[in-house]
Every structure is written in structure tokens, then in C-alpha cells.
């Protein structure tokens, strides 16, 4: 990137909801954009709108990130376009239902998009970012990364992956200027629920955030240097104490022997 060029952000899942919100706010902040999704008509419309309103140069990439050709197309862009300084891994889906009720196709698609695509795109972006010692990755997880319900087992597991992967990346990159922020939205008013199988109208409107509020808060979190951003949580101490407890629990696993409750008298076996 030369001095007069704008930085470029690549946003996945930009054709609606949170991704479209990031595209708008990043254009407002002076980014040029590469917008990725399957619905080209939506991307084209958004690109025209953002170019007019913010003067951004907006490219669109039609890609189904659950397919090899779709992922490869976006990986190649991330590897070859050195103008890209920000990757927003936002595309995701979540069919809600019990593990046996969700179809094979929906379960495979959820893992492919929420886990595999996010991993591959991160791996494609990182070498350039590390070589330049700059750049940022925003991974959109969910509060469901911390919580499983009978209808969210698989979705929660994919989001737990995003949280865990992002936390590990932050450790890996600690000695560099490359940033990884993981965002954990709670219910947000988007088309997510049209595909999830449970309508947004089933939720108490008081617990649902607007896309604009979510994205603005998450970007403010990025500006503050937050590694984990939970836009709807007022008391940050809750996360801090959760993380302390997690660390303490992990330290307690490093004992090298069974805990006393699992120890049986020598030579004997426990009675059943
Ligand atoms: N809404 C909520 O309550 C919450 C959402 N999230 C997360 O936020 C992220 C964005 O979701 P949200 O904005 O709510 O939902 P939307 O359904 O509005 O947006 C999902 C986006 O992902 C894209 N997408 C879906 N499937 C594919 C695919 N196969 N290939 C490429 N792009 C795809 C869609 O575009 P297209 O269909 O054109 O391909 C769309 O742009 C997700 O990761 C979701 O898990 C997290 C917590 C709460
Ligand atoms: C599954 C949900 O309730 C929601 N989309 C979330 O990720 O929090």
C-alpha cells in the first residue's frame, strides 16, 4: 500500500445484517472494501450505495464459502492483494434445532462456514499481515460460544471454536502488531433468524440489539484495543472474573495425577 491509498477491509457475509453494518461503518471510517457473499445483487447495491455516500472504492466477490471454489477465490484475494489490512470474518449461519433434527446438509454447512471458512481465510490473511507487522482480523463469534442450549449444540460448538481459535491467535501474535479481536454478539436483529428456523419475533425485543448499535460498539471495542468484545455486557468485571476462573481451572489440571476422589486403595478396585 502506498501512502495515498486507503486501507482495504475484506468483509465476509456483507450482503445483510452485521456484515453490511461493518461495510457501512468501515467505509465511513475511510476504508475501501472488498465485500464477499453469495447474493451478488445485494452486494452490488450496497457497493453503489457506499461508493456514493462515502466515496469508497468497493469491489464485490461472489463466493459461496461452503464450497472449495468459493473459499479458494477469497483465499487467493487475501494472499495476493497487499492493500488488505483488515479481515472481518463475519459470514455465519445457525440452523437451530436438536442435533438429530437438523439435516445433514445444514449441519455440514454450519461447520463449513462458521469453522472451516473462517479458519482458511484467517490462514490466508495472516502471512501478509505478519510480514508487514500490521493488520487486524475481526472474528464474529457469539455469546453462544459460552453457552449451549438443546437447540444450539452445534451452533454453540462452532462459535466456541471461533472464540478458542481467536484466543490462541492472540497468544501467537502477542509479539507482533497484528491484532485479533473476537466479538461475541447476543441477539441482533438480522436475517439470521429467517434461516435459523426460529423467527426473530419469538424473542423479547428488549434483548435484541440493532445491527448499527452492535457494529458501532464492536468497533469502539477494537479502538480500545479489546481482545474480546461483548457489546451487550454492561459489567466488564464478569468477563474478567470468568477468565481468571478459567485460568485457575486450567492451572489445576496440571497436576500429573488423578484427583484424590479418583484414587482407589492400592491393588483394589472401586466398588460399583
Ligand atoms: N443475529 C444474531 O443474533 C447473531 C449473529 N451472530 C453472528 O453474526 C454473523 C453474521 O450474521 P447476521 O448478520 O446475524 O446474519 P445474516 O443472515 O443477516 O447474515 C449472514 C451473512 O452471511 C452470508 N452467508 C451465509 N451463507 C454464506 C455462504 N455459504 N457463503 C458466503 N456467505 C454466506 C450471507 O450472505 P449470502 O446469503 O448472500 O451469501 C449474509 O451476508 C454470523 O457469524 C452469526 O453467527 C452472532 C451472534 C448473534
Ligand atoms: C443462536 C442465537 O441465539 C443467536 N444468533 C446468537 O448467536 O446469539
What does this structure look like?
The chain is an alpha/beta fold. The chain has a single domain (8-262), classed as Rossmann fold. It is 46% helix and 12% strand. The protein has 8 helices and 7 strands; from the N terminus they run E-H-E-H-E-H-E-H-E-H-E-H-H-E-H. It has helices spanning 17-28, 40-54, 68-80, 104-132, 153-172, 192-196, 211-223, 236-253; strands spanning 8-12, 32-37, 58-62, 84-89, 136-140, 179-183, 228-229. Strands 3-2-1-4-5-6-7 form a 7-stranded parallel β-sheet, with helices on both faces. Strand 2, helix 2 and strand 3 form a beta-alpha-beta unit. Helix 1 packs across helix 7. The longest helix is centred in the middle third of the chain and has 29 residues, at 104-132. Bound molecules: NADPH dihydro-nicotinamide-adenine-dinucleotide phosphate (NDP) and 2-amino-3-ketobutyric acid.
In short:
The chain is 46% helix and 12% strand.
- The string of secondary-structure elements, in order, is EHEHEHEHEHEHHEH
Quickly name the level 1 CATH class.
Answer: Alpha Beta
Number of helices: 8
**What's the total number of strands?**
7
Shape: globular
Structural class: alpha/beta
Largest sheet, strands/sense/barrel? 7 strands, parallel
> Helix coverage percent of residues?
40-55%
Radius of gyration: 21 Å
In the predicted model, the low-confidence regions spanning at least 5 consecutive residues are none
Strand portion: 5-15%
Intertermini distance: 68 Å
CATH topology: Rossmann fold
Average pLDDT over all residues: 96
- Quick one: CATH superfamily? NAD(P)-binding Rossmann-like Domain
Strand order of the largest sheet: 3-2-1-4-5-6-7
Corresponding CATH architecture? 3-Layer(aba) Sandwich
Total domain modules: 1
Protein name: NADP-dependent 3-hydroxy acid dehydrogenase YdfG
Keywords: Oxidoreductase, Plasmid
Pfam families: adh_short
InterPro entries: NAD(P)-bd_dom_sf, Sc_DH/Rdtase_CS, SDR_fam
